[in-house]
Amino acid sequence: xxxxxxxxxxxxxxxxxxxxxxxxxTSTAPTPTGDRVADERCxxxxxxxxxxxxxxxxxxxxxxxxxxxxxxxxxxxxGNVADPDPDTDDTSGDGxxxxxxxxxxxxxxxxxxxxxxxxxxxxxGVQIEAPIAxxxxxxxxxxxxxxVAEGRYFQAISCALTMSSFTxxxxxxxxTCPNAVLVQGNPFRPDDAIDPTDQLPEPQAPLxxxxxxxxxxxxxxxTAVLSGWFELRR
Length: 234
Fold this sequence. Notes:
Elements: E1 62-71, E2 95-100, E3 108-109, E4 113-119, E5 125-131, H1 132-135, E6 140-149, E7 152-166, E8 170-183, E9 223-233
Antiparallel strand pairs: 1-2, 1-9, 3-4, 4-5, 5-6, 6-7, 7-8, 8-9
């Protein structure tokens, strides 16, 4: 969903789309990482403040995001009751994850968006992209958000983002994506080539370019609700 990631060193030049610093492949049996945190962290409230009226001179050097991944159960056939998704252990990606800010200090990307990137030491992370004109003037914004949790990449092109603060020194907000889709690839890997022997166990929808929705696969593992909050500081 998002167009790019920053370099692995904070404050360096703007990166190409879907850049990454890790070459670790997506595993068919992902292992839990240190990104998992207590579920209540994802329901905390972000700091509050003002909205600026000028998009110039915005630099954010530190920050963090907390994101909850809740995969949806499949729709039940008429007369049947849907079973819950059985794959909800520590390797499923479900649950609350925390990531530090990563990449460029300057979040502005052409032609008129801001891209906030958060990433762990591995290949998991979060990208949040929204029009800069809306971020500095409105509390309620529509954003595109992608989350990689335990190697699974969920993407949503229409998320409700509520900005609690956006100034030259701080930015904070909370978000909900009710219809995130599991897609192939990983924006935090050096390339998005998918080898036939390196597939996630669930059916995958093709990776869409930014602004184009992915194809929803018909099973539970392919859709999820994403929710959480972030904060950034100069």
